[in-house]
Every structure is written in structure tokens, then in C-alpha cells.
Amino acid sequence: MTGLKTGRTHDGTKGKGALAEISLLLAAFFVSTDFVSVKYALQGLPPLVVVPLRYVVAGLMILGLLHLIRNKDSIRLTPKDLTVMAGLGLVGVTLNQAGYTVGLSLTGGSHDALIFATAPVWGLLLGIVLSIERGSRRGAMGLGFAVAGVALVVGEGLGSPEASVGGDLLVCLSSMSWGAYTVMSLPIFVRFDPLFVAGWTMLLGGLAALPFALTGLPGLSEPLSSVEWDSVSMRSWAAVLYSTVLTSGFAIAVWQANVSRLGANRVLVYMYLVTLFGLIFSILLLGEGLSVEKVAGALVILLGVYLARRARLPWLLASEGPRRTARRAHRLYYSNDQNY
Description:
By secondary structure, this protein is mostly helical. The protein has one domain. It is 75% helix and 0% strand. The chain has helices spanning 2-41, 47-69, 79-106, 109-116, 119-129, 137-156, 165-184, 194-215, 234-262, 264-268, 270-286, 292-310, 322-329, 331-334.
């Protein structure tokens, strides 16, 4: 058995590496075009109606697929597991997507793409606070540049008809929550398949956003009852379908699976492509302008993300491996539970 495994390792590793590369490139493309597709969806639906619609459906889609292809008895959720996944859903879906979608309804897609690129930096900061990571001078410089770049982009929104400071700040909140979600999801990968985690966090996070869809938020999102379903265009429905299946379903599942398999350091580099493509597609498809402040902000943000990613922090080191990293972080949730 050992010989058979060894004989297939070389080709298998190459095949898996190529598959991971292709899947991450596709995920980066779908996420970068999501800034445009959500803009189209918001032409017919309120922001907080879009969030549970996307993520409840995407979560059910992933969990249903796993139910079909795997033994349902092989994975069991304890009440504590369910609580942890609900918490991850609140951070990674409810808070993240509320800020992202409402923010995008107020600001430009290019602003959203640039500000959201800071997610790895906020994940770094949270890791230091939780003692999962060790701070460094390079990491501090990266954080400083990222914040300065966001300030440039937000400042550009002061005089831009296509953006608003409030929308930019909501997107910044979304970026922070996604960085936190990336860090906080590592420990649970010790026990669960990343696709299983993605499915449950999407479903629970989407359900948690449902009350806000029903009530709305004054000045930010109309309630579900205000939607005139007959007037929602096919383009809006197509945009919701695109975002649900390809961005929420496929892209986030690929991200989650590869963070677990390859480690955050190797996966976060694709955030550069999301930023670049998101900026390009927002300009080409939404007709947004490219100002000096926006270009300067983009360069400073990407420099900050690069420096933060290159900081030699324990959980980002490829030599450790993602599984070892996850086991060290596992104490966040299960350190007092002798069953794990």
C-alpha cells in the first residue's frame, strides 16, 4: 500500500496543484466581478434582502451536495460545534455581507474592490490580538500603509458622485470581518471538512441576516415587503443567481478549501487579483472613473497588504503547514473540552 501511494504521489501532487491553481484563479475572477453583479442586483432588490437570499441558498446548495456525495453519518455536529459555526457565520456572512452589500449600494464598485483588499491586514491584526501570531516591524508597516491607502480612497469619495464616505466605511467594516473570519475559521478545520464549514457558516449567517431583510434599516435598506417582485428585472435576477452560485457558492468554498489545504499565506496572494480585476471591471462595466486619489490609494493598499503578507508570522509560514497551524489555533474553541 505504501509503494502504491508513493508511486502516485508525484503525478497526484502535480494534478492537485494545477487544480488548486485553476480553481483559485476562477474564484478570484468570480469574486472580482461580484462587485459589478451585486450592483446590478441592487437595481431591483434592497441590500439586506440580497444577503439572506444569496447565502441561505448557497449554504443549502453546498450542504446538499455534500449530503449526496458523502456519508451523512461521517460528520456529526455537537451543540458546541453548531455554536462555533453560528459565530463564524455571524462574522463571516452576516456582518461581512451586510457591510459589503449595503456599502456597495452607497459607494462605487472600484472603491469596494480597493478597500476590501485590506482583509488580510485585519486578519493579521486579529491574529496578534489573539496571540495566534507574533507582531513584527514589517507587519506594522503593512498595517500602516493599508490604513493610509483606505484613507486616500475614502477621501476621494468626499468629492465623488459615485461614492460616499459612509459606504466606504461600511465596506471597511466588511473587510475587517472577512479578515477575522479567515483567522477564526482555522481552528475548526482540525475536525471538519472546509466545505462543510463553508456550507454551515453560509446557511447560519444567511439565516441570521433574515430578520434585517424583514424589517429593513431606515436610510440604508428597505424591508422585504417593499419589493415589487413584478418590476425586478431579469438582469437583477441573473446577477443574484451569478453571485449566489459562482461567488457565494463556488468561490468562497474554493477559498475555504484551499486555506485549509495550502495555508493562508499561499491563498491570500490571490487577493491582489481580486483587487485588480475588481477595479478594472468596475471601470469597464459600471463606467466608474479612475482618479489620481484612487490610483494612489490602490498602490498604497497593495503595498500594505504585500508587507503584511510577507511578515514572518507563525500561522503564515508555509513550512508549518495549515493543519499544524489550525491545531495550534484550536485552543481558541476547544481547549477546555477533553473530547477533542
